[in-house]
Amino acid sequence: MSNYNVVEIFSSINGEGPRSGQLALFIRMQGCNLDCGYCDTRWANEEDCRSHWTSTEEILDFVRQMQIKNVTITGGEPLLQENIMELLEALAAMEGIRVEIETNGSIDLKPFAGMTNAPSFNMDYKLPGSGMEAHMLPENFTCLTSKDTVKFVVKDHQDLMRALELIRAYGLTETCHVFLSPVYGEIEPEEIVNFMKSNNMNDVTLQLQIHKVIWDSEMRGV
Predict the structure, then answer these.
(1) Residue 107, SS3?
(2) Over the stretch 114-135, which tens digit does the pLDDT of each residue have?
(3) Strand, helix or coil for residue 13
(4) Pairing of strands 3-13, 52-55
(5) What pairs with residue 101 in β-bridges?
(6) Helix %, strand %, coil % for the chain, to 5?
(7) Would you call the peptide bond into 17 cis, given omega within 30 degrees of 0 as the criterion?
(8) Displacement of CA 11 from its chain's centroid (Å)
(9) In this structure, is the dihedral angle defined by the CA atoms of residues 124, 6, 34 and 186, taken in order, positive or negative?
(10) How far apart are alpha carbons 120 and 215 in whole angstroms?
């Protein structure tokens, strides 16, 4: 039975994505291979972050006890965890559980997309404002289906232009959910809406992180 470096497990609501506002159980893994300039969970990526090794069975027991259908595995970058496939396969076998992986776009999704009852992916493609776009794997776009999501976190007009370019080049609105989300405190949502209007961005959704509206933006475990 494998173990995973877990920072926290908590219940809350989904703050973003297609199931925004719904109850969810969050499993946050430690560590990330990127260092985005606006990262709001950098504390979970540091090597000295307080964490605990948690087994597959311990996580499954917690999921059973909580009785929450939506399970979100996040980080950091959870797909970096050794033997993460074991956990995903075990969760996939649980009746009535919907598993979502929050991933940063730099990890090859093909092995995971081919799973039986694969999780849904919430892929956060990093735009120029993050400083990390060079690490992105655009081929991951071909792995996404109607149950998956691409999130573009935008910092400025350059990011908006790049997101528009990618959406059109890969026909993303035809294959998956597409969200635009502002970097908190950097760009006004109104600017994003005006950009969407001026470019006829049908089937793209403006997303505000509602957990940062309900709670303090720096609060953990929510």
Answers:
(1) coil
(2) 999 999 999 999 999 999 999 9
(3) strand
(4) antiparallel
(5) 73, 121
(6) 35, 25, 40
(7) no
(8) 16
(9) positive
(10) 26
* Residue 15: exposure state from Cβ atoms within 10 A (0-12, 13-18, ≥19): buried
**What phi and psi values does residue 52 have, to the nearest 5 degrees?**
-145, 145
Identify whether the C-beta of residue 55 lies closer than 8 Å to the C-beta of residue 39. no
Q: Which amino acid is at 50?
A: R
**Identity (one letter) of the amino acid at 201?**
M
Give the pLDDT of the chain (222 residues) as one tens digit per residue.
Answer: 799 999 999 999 998 889 999 999 999 999 999 999 898 888 777 777 888 899 999 999 999 999 999 999 999 899 999 999 999 999 999 999 999 999 999 999 999 999 999 999 999 999 999 999 999 999 999 999 999 999 999 999 999 999 999 999 999 999 999 999 999 889 999 999 999 999 999 999 999 977 657 666 565 665
Determine how many CB atoms are found less than 10 A away from the CB of residue 22.
13
Q: Helix (H, G, I), strand (E, B), or coil: what is residue 205?
A: strand
Q: How far apart are CA 179 and CA 79, in angstroms?
A: 21
Phi, psi of 140 (to 5 degrees): -65, -25
